[in-house]
Amino acid sequence: MTVCAIEITRTDPFTITADGAYAARLAGEGEARYPERWTLAGPEAYAVPLPLAQPEEADSEVLPLADGRVLIHRRVADRHVFALLYPTGTEAAPRTGELVLGSVPAQEGLRVTLLPPSPDGACAYALAVGPEDSTVWQVAGSPSGPQRVAQVPGLCSGGVWLDRAGRLLALDRELDGRTKTVAVDLAGAVSPLLQISEDSDDRLLLAAPDSGLLVIRSDAPGEPRLGWGVLGSARPVRFPECLRLEEEATPFAVQPGQVLMPETCGVALRVGEAGLALWRPADRHVFRLGAPTGWLGGTGLWTAEGRLHLPYSVPEAPCGVMSLGQPVAPLPPVHLDPQPPVDPDPPAEPAARPVPLQQAPLG
User: Fold this and answer.
1) Beta bridge partners of 231
2) CA-to-CA separations, 231 to 143, 228, 245, 353, 360, in angstroms, rounded
3) Hey, CA dihedral for 170, 171, 177, 178, is it positive or negative?
4) CA–CA separation, 283 vs 286, rounded Å?
5) Which of 155, 148, 177 has the alpha carbon at shortest distance from 109?
6) Phi and psi based region of residue 260 (left: phi greater than 0; alpha: psi -120 to 50; beta: remaining)
7) pLDDT for residue 44
8) Chain-centre distance of CA 268, in angstroms?
9) Euclidean distance between the first and the last CA atom of the chain, given in angstroms as a whole number
């Protein structure tokens, strides 16, 4: 289906599993909110509402698991409660089943949010940020309910998975007035990951574990810029001129499956409140495209074959997915000057060297 409008009509979070099979959102309006699961691994997407006897609060969070169940995070009195929802009953009389997993105390000054879906699809994690430190909780996939798996000094945000096993998690940590990305091994170790210069704020936005491509935002060039590097490379982070867009650009999806070929990974960006752009490091060109009307949450998912799937919901198509391919970049101009052309994307900080993750430098 082709949809040409460029308006984002809904901004509610829409979360997709790492394998792209399921998605979930908090549907409804006002005080009539309910979880909704989308099934995407088929010829046509379809949605299943998962309402309970009482509507959900607007600040509840939902996250899909690989088995089709939906994790919900609610604030109930003095606790953060986690439960799994799933469809039950019959087609004529559908019902919603609920399995309560446990809770985390809602202490004063503590902010608890769900982290992005784990690559293994079976576990789910939450980040609890307190006044001085941050704690990663495993809230699903544990036999004994929510449990602490890592504690990080400083105030953390973000959350990007660095591997396919769901063990290495990158968090943006604010400590001593600076924000740097650290890698958290859920077995307990915390190590520096991204430090372009001592005085810069460096955040990791996306990672492609297959290729090692990392998409970052840093003010090391003198202003906040989007850049890219490769995990395990000795080359410095690059800040392409083509990514200096007039509106703020936020990457939300990166192409998987490009083993050892980070330059060929497609990256999708939400530009401003209503725009869509596609980019690959090898192209050095940004394509501005139309997003579907009713684009849900400004999010989507790349396939390994290079197709970008964008979910949308409008009255005539309440459960739709728009599919796009990566456009072909224009050919570079022919240089008649005998002198070699200048690289249009030189490193902004040639002397800067990131802090390695487990002795593997970032480039």
Assistant:
1) 362
2) 34, 10, 25, 13, 7
3) positive
4) 8
5) 155
6) left
7) 92
8) 11
9) 39
Please give the Cα distance from 267 to 258 (Å, whole number).
12
Helices (H), the chain: none
Measured in residues, the chain has a length of 363
Backbone dihedral region of 189: left (phi > 0), alpha (psi from -120 to 50 degrees) or beta? beta
Beta strands 178-185 and 168-175 are antiparallel
Spatial contact of 86 and 51, defined as CB atoms under 8 Å apart = no
Sheet holding 202-208, edge to edge: 202-208, 213-218, 225-230
| Average pLDDT estimate for 328-355 | 48
The pLDDT mean for the chain works out to 87
Assigned token pair, 22:
């399921």
Residue 217 and residue 332: Cα distance in Å, rounded?
27
Residue 11 tokens read as 């901004």
| Residue 335: pLDDT over 70 | no
Tokens standing for residue 173: 């940590």
The residue type found at 27 is A
Confidence at 232, pLDDT banded by 50, 70, 90: confident
Q: Phi, psi (5° rounding) for residue 243?
A: -90, 5
Give me the residue label for tokens 């959900």: 56
For 295, which DSSP code?
Answer: B
What's the Cα-to-Cα distance from 232 to each of 65, 274, 363, rounded to whole Å?
A: 30, 35, 7
User: What are 19-72's pLDDT values in tens digits?
Assistant: 999 999 999 988 899 999 999 998 899 999 999 999 999 999 999 999 999 999
Query: What are the counts of helices (DSSP H) followed by strands (DSSP E) for the chain?
Result: 0, 26
- Bridge partner residues of 302 (DSSP): 308
Contacts of 286 (CB under 8 A, 6+ apart): 242, 243, 245, 269, 277, 278, 279
The tokens of 258 are what? 């490009």
Torsion of CA 234, 240, 245, 247, to 10 degrees: 0
